[in-house]
Design goal:
By secondary structure, the protein is mainly β. The chain has one domain. Helix content is about 5%, strand content about 40%. It contains 2 helices and 20 strands. It starts with a strand and ends in a 15-residue tail after the last helix.
């Protein structure tokens, strides 16, 4: 369920018009990852999608016997990895710095927030996660993430002991135009202690120009071979993404009904 925290349709319509109508100058993708405060401190939340509120289920693929992202035994689920997407509209000009690099967000630009909590450790789960992908490349149709809108990435200051993903790799972003785009958040490979661990939470950010908001796909990737029979990849998870502006994209944001957009999907 895509939840939009507005009290009336007039307020929502105003927000949609601002998002679609605000024009920003184009600039290259910034490969750094900026540490930021909670986006609620510099923006207004305008949309939310909780994976737990959808019909998505973590299921193993191929020859794997269990998904590495849910602690399940004999059909009983004891714990599951969590993913909540939120979107904030920037209220005031805000600048973040990382070493010699900096990025400035302008009013009406968007911050896509992805809060992840990795499942508790068990004999049928992964021990860590090394990558989160959002958007993905789409060659068969469906919602397309607008690569021209993506400005950069961030992470809300992690709790003590929680490792942040590493920035600086320009290949973390791919844009194939009409075939979609993908953005990766990557932790160091080979060192599980430098990756996201069991029961740890982190909030990753994607900075975007003002665009309509739709539903794309997210993917979790853990190091392969951590446990026998455990699938290290979970894909096709519903997430919020910026869409290419157009009549169809605007409709996804609910201009007719505005509140309570629901879609049925499989895992």
């Amino acid at each position: 369920m895509l939840r939009v925290p507005f009290s009336n349709t007039a307020a929502m319509a105003t927000a949609v018009c601002l998002a679609i109508g605000a024009g920003q100058a184009q600039s290259a993708f910034d490969p750094a990852i900026y540490t930021t405060p909670d986006p609620a401190g510099f923006g207004t939340q305008i949309a939310e999608l909780d994976l737990a509120d959808t019909s998505y289920s973590f299921t193993p693929s191929g020859s794997f016997t269990s998904s590495g992202y849910v602690n399940e035994f004999n059909g009983l689920i004891f714990d599951s990895t969590e993913l909540v997407s939120r979107v904030y509209r920037v209220d005031t000009e805000t600048t973040f710095s990382q070493g010699a690099e900096s990025i400035t967000l302008q009013p009406n630009q968007l911050v896509f927030s992805y809060t992840i909590r990795l499942v508790e450790e068990s004999p049928n789960t992964v021990f860590s996660m090394r990558e989160f992908q959002v958007g993905l490349l789409n060659f068969v149709g469906g919602d397309i993430m607008d690569g021209s809108a993506i400005l950069g990435r961030g992470v809300v200051t992690p709790d003590a002991g929680v490792a942040a993903p590493v920035g600086g790799n320009p290949l973390s972003f791919e844009d194939l135009g009409m075939f979609g785009s993908s953005l990766d958040f990557e932790w160091p490979t080979g060192d599980l202690s430098a990756q996201l661990g069991n029961e740890q939470s982190i909030t990753l950010l994607m900075f975007s120009r003002a665009r309509p908001i739709g539903e794309g796909l997210g993917t979790f990737i853990a190091p392969a071979g951590q446990q026998t029979g455990v699938d290290p990849i979970a894909g096709n998870m519903p997430t919020l993404i910026p869409l290419v502006p157009g009549p169809g994209a605007a409709a996804l944001f609910g201009l007719a009904g505005l509140i309570g957009l629901r879609r049925t999907r499989g895992g």
